[in-house]
Amino acid sequence: MIYTITTNPAIDYILRFDKFEDGATIRASEDEKYPGGKGIMASKILHNLGEKPVNLGFVGGFIGEYIANSIRDLGLDEKFVRIKENSRINVKLKYDKETEINAKGPKISKEEVEKFFDSLKEIEKGDVIVISGSLPYSLDSDFYKKVIEKTEADFTIDIADKKLLDYLAYKPLLVKPNEEELGKIFQTEINDENLVEYARKLNELGAKNVIVSLGAKGSIFVDENHAYRAKPIEGKLVNSVGAGDSMVGGFVYGMVNKLEKIDAYKLAVACGTATAFSPDIANRDMINQILNKVEVEEIGN
């Protein structure tokens, strides 16, 4: 079983403009609403690949019920803890640029946190937990560590900057920093010459598998035995939100379904790219189209 955790989910309210003018009253040409949050994004791609992940986390108020209902409408399972305060709405402005306005989110009580930890009792050894995203301000900074320690499941973790180092001793199945984050983790400038070296340092510190996303330059995959690089795939960027989460979901799907690591990496690349070329999380047909275009070469061992 695969579980995803979204501690601070949101309605992602996307507004598209033909022209945006700061300080003016303007009308959007299109608007869309999606259940958002990094764990939810990973769940959606896993569902589109054919898995049945369970969404865990916190939702509250009418906004939270909208999120939970939207997830169920997509055919996804959810076991969110209901909290007193309202979940948040994040606004994404799309014009010739992208601007994101993310709300603070609700306060979560100690009693609500305990209900969440109780919900982890069903997770078994051999299950996979996808952990990603920043924590709400009211949760302890070691919240994710407690999640890991309370289960025997494998886990992936996708959090920013040097905080990632605190989790490597727990031997995550996958970590996925981008190029900038990798540089911040080790306080150095990353380039083509040292990219594999610093990705492999994450292996040496405990990460079983590492994907470093490089934006328009593609990505690399590193484990203790191999290093691969995927070439970038040409296409129109439609929506960058969820692309990284789609990569994580694709790799987890590959591992759960016993694919060779190079094939799990190829699927991860296809999922991330297909989502970037789609208005929302990519569907299976789009993923398959992109998968046929993925080219991976070994770059070291």
Automatic annotation (TrEMBL):
Function: Catalyzes the ATP-dependent phosphorylation of fructose-l-phosphate to fructose-l,6-bisphosphate.
Superkingdom in the source lineage: Bacteria
This protein's name: Tagatose-6-phosphate kinase
Alphabetized UniProt keyword annotations: ATP-binding, Kinase, Lactose metabolism, Nucleotide-binding, Transferase
Underlying gene: pfkB
Location of the Carbohydrate kinase PfkB domain: 10-278
Reaction catalyzed: D-tagatofuranose 6-phosphate + ATP = D-tagatofuranose 1,6-bisphosphate + ADP + H(+); beta-D-fructose 1-phosphate + ATP = beta-D-fructose 1,6-bisphosphate + ADP + H(+)
Coiled coil segments of this chain: none
Keyword presence, ATP-binding: yes
SUPFAM superfamilies from the UniProt entry: Ribokinase-like (SSF53613)
Pathway in which this enzyme or protein is active: Carbohydrate metabolism; D-tagatose 6-phosphate degradation; D-glyceraldehyde 3-phosphate and glycerone phosphate from D-tagatose 6-phosphate: step 1/2
Xref: InterPro entries: 1-PFruKinase (IPR022463), Carboh/pur_kinase_PfkB_CS (IPR002173), PfkB_dom (IPR011611), Ribokinase-like (IPR029056), Tagatose/fructose_Pkinase (IPR017583)
Molecular function terms, GO-annotated: 1-phosphofructokinase activity
PROSITE patterns: PFKB_KINASES_2
Family per similarity comment: Belongs to the carbohydrate kinase pfkB family. Belongs to the carbohydrate kinase PfkB family. LacC subfamily.
Source taxonomy: Bacteria, Bacillati, Bacillota, Tissierellia, Tissierellales
Pfam families (UniProt xref): PfkB
Major enzyme class: transferase
UniProt EC number: 2.7.1.144
